[in-house]
Amino acid sequence: MDTAWRILDCSSLTGSIRSARGAIEIRPEEGAFQSVPVADVAVVLLGTRVSISTAVMHRLLDADVVVMFCDWRGVPEGAAYPWRAHTRVGARQRAQAELSLPRQKNAWGRLVRAKVLGQAHVLSTVDKSTALRLRNLAKSVHSGDPENVEGQAARLYWARLFGPDQSFLRLPESEDPWNTYLNYGYGVLRAHGVRAVVGAGLNPTLGLFHRGRSNYFNLVDDLIEPFRPAVDATVLTLPAEGSLADRSVKQRLVQAVLQPFNAGGDTLPTVLERLAQHLGQYVEGDRKRLDVPQWTGPHRDRDNGR
Questions:
Q1: What is the pTM (predicted TM-score) of this model?
Q2: Residues 6+ apart with CB under 8 A from 185
Q3: Is 284 annotated as a binding residue?
Q4: How are strands ordered across the β-sheet holding 76-80?
Q5: Is 142 annotated as belonging to a binding site?
Q6: Which of 14, 36, 122, 197 has the most Cβ atoms closer than 10 angstroms to its Cβ?
Q7: Where does the chain show beta strands of DSSP type E?
Q8: Domain holding 183: CATH number?
Q9: Based on the domain organization, do 176 and 233 belong to the same domain?
Q10: How many distinct structural domains can be found in the chain?
Q11: Model confidence band, residue 230 (pLDDT cutoffs 50, 70, 90)
C-alpha cells in the first residue's frame, strides 16, 4: 500500500479494508493494519486482491472520495464517485446541455492549444526542433480544431518523445512499460478529473468534444487533456524496461499528478478543480471564454491558453 497526499494506492494490496469511525482501516494479510482518516483522502485505488464492504464504500463516497478499480496490472479501469451536491447543479447542467455549438468549439480549441503547448514543453527536453514545430502548430488551432491539430501534434509528439530510434506507438491496450505507465498516470489524473467535474455541478457525460456513447466521462476526458503532459514528463524519466510492479514507479506516477502545476505552488488537482468551476461559469454565460492553463513545469511562469 502506498500513500501520497490525497491518493491512497491499494492496487497492489493483498488483504482487506474495513470501515472505522471517521476512517478506513487497511489490513494486509501480513503486517500491521493502518488507519487512514477519510478526510485526508481524495482518491482510492483498489486492486484485484482487496476485499471491501459496502460500509467502506459508503464511508468513502460520503466523504467525496473517488474510488478507482484497477486491473491485475494496477491500471485503473473503472470508478465509483460521489453524487456531490452543488447549489446550481440543475441550472448548470441544463445550461451545459444547451451550450451552443460555437461555444463548445471555442472551449475545445482552447483546450487543444494548451495541450499542444504542454507537449511542446515536454518534448523540448529531448527534441527542440520538433518541439518548435508543435509550438507553431499550436498557433494554428482554431475554434473546434477543424484541422485536427491535436492529431497532427500527437503523431509528431509520440514519434519523438522517447527518442528518434524508438518505434513507440501510443496504444492504451499495449502492455509495454511506457504504455502501462501512461495508462496508470492518466487513470489517476482521470480520477481527479471526475472529482473536479462532479464537484462543479457538471454532467460528466456531456463532453465538449468527446462523444463516446459508452463513455460516462466524456467531459472529464476533455478537461484533462492539458494536464496529460505533466504525466508524460514523469514517464519520460522512468526506466524503459521497468514495470508497475515496482512500487517506486507507482509512487513517481502518483506524484506526477500531485506535483505543483504553477510557480505559485498550486497542484494539478487544484488547478483542475478550478478549471472545472470556470467551465461551469462558462456554460452559464458568466464567463466569455474558457481560459485554459498550460503545463510548463512547476518552476516556471505559466501562460493561460488564449
A1: 0.80
A2: 231, 234, 235, 253, 256, 257
A3: no
A4: 2-4, 7-10, 43-46, 66-70, 76-80
A5: no
A6: 197
A7: 2-4, 7-10, 15-20, 23-28, 34-37, 43-46, 50-51, 66-70, 76-80, 292-293, 304-305
A8: 1.20.120.920
A9: yes
A10: 2
A11: very high
